[in-house]
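chain below, 440 aa
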Amino acid sequence: MLSTDRPFFSPAWFGILDDSDLVTPINGDRRFDDFYLSGVTPGTLVQIDLTSTDTDPLLQLINADTGNVIASNDDGGSGFNARLQFTVQPNADYILRSTTFGENATGTYTIESSIGQLTPASILSGNQILEGTVSRTDFPNPHREGDFYDGYLLTDLQPGEVVVIDALGDFDPHLQLVDANTGNILLEDNNSRPSITSLLSFTVEAGVDYILQVSGNTGDYNLATQSFIPDDSDDQLIQRDLFRSRIFRSGSLNGFIDGRFNNERNEEWGAAGTNFIDTVPLAYGDGVSTPAGRDRPNARVISNAIAQQEGDVSDPRGLTNLIWAWGQFLDHDITLNPDVSEEVAEAEGRIVNIPILANDPVLNPGNVISLRESQFDPTTGTNASNPRRLPNTITAFVDGSNVYGSSEEELTALRAFVGGQLRISDGNLLPIESDGGRPQ
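prediction:
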């Protein structure tokens, strides 16, 4: 998509369709550019011509409010060129889509309106997340030398709504909010935070249509919009969360209890039920699933040698026993992989026995310490290239999941639903499972 030196609004545009453009949602495998038509009045007859010497152009007329295709034309102009004529209806906004009749076709085109002004803009609702690409075949931004831009028409907005727009890219995106009727730049931002993100927020005014432009050099970006009607129930209408690179309503800052979407680009990272990440090479006995260490010294002997001491030993930093207890608490907040049941362990031989040797300071020689194997992801452990992996049944975040649970079911079982309190058992102790408490 490459324009002439015209500004944001013009009756004619010269562009290029290539692999950086989105594919049509209606008939896939066809690249497209969208244009918003402004400056026309109800009852006016409009003619749109789409011409190309590289492709067989296909022209579509789209209702900007619903996204529905009102009309389309393939060869209504000269040769294979497209032409549409329509009468402007009251209270209607229009998008003209330049695409191709053939799949995966690329090339140059010219789109021209007999009346009014066109500006590059696809439909973007007030609550949407999308991915885009700014490339050197996009339209150059006449107000930012060396930058190219994608345009969006903001739809489904009501006067008085607060709209928050956030852009995150692998380049430094620049956001501009443009009055779709006058072409004036109302707001712009690319430095709201010390990162490659940009943020805009504004209140919708009656009678104003808005164009959003994402500008930059080249690269991919994520764009998110949120809109809401302010009310007195919010202590704070909007909040800026620097860590999540977005502005939110105060009531929407709570994440999912299972840890999903804590990382907005990788929604499953750290979520309950996902497998542990390996920071060192796996070393199963057979390279696939069996316990390692059968040829190593006895584990109980190693433990005794490391932990053995006579009397109390003061910590050189003055730390108390609370430090290891707190560390254990944190460990239980980020990792939990249960053992298989006794029945499964016995039936499948998934028990590891550690012999108690002579001279053990506590346990009787000749006995064994029996450990059951951990539960594992059943899709793993099939061969050396797919070794056994263990799932984390709680979230990997320091979020109190060992107190509140990592699922709605656990949370519901633990809550008293009175005064924000948790359930307790007799004596003001933790709840027990038979009384609706969390299984231990």
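Residues 172 and 196 are 5 Å apart (CA to CA). Residues 1-6, 234-252, 436-440 have pLDDT under 50 and may be disordered.
thats it, cya
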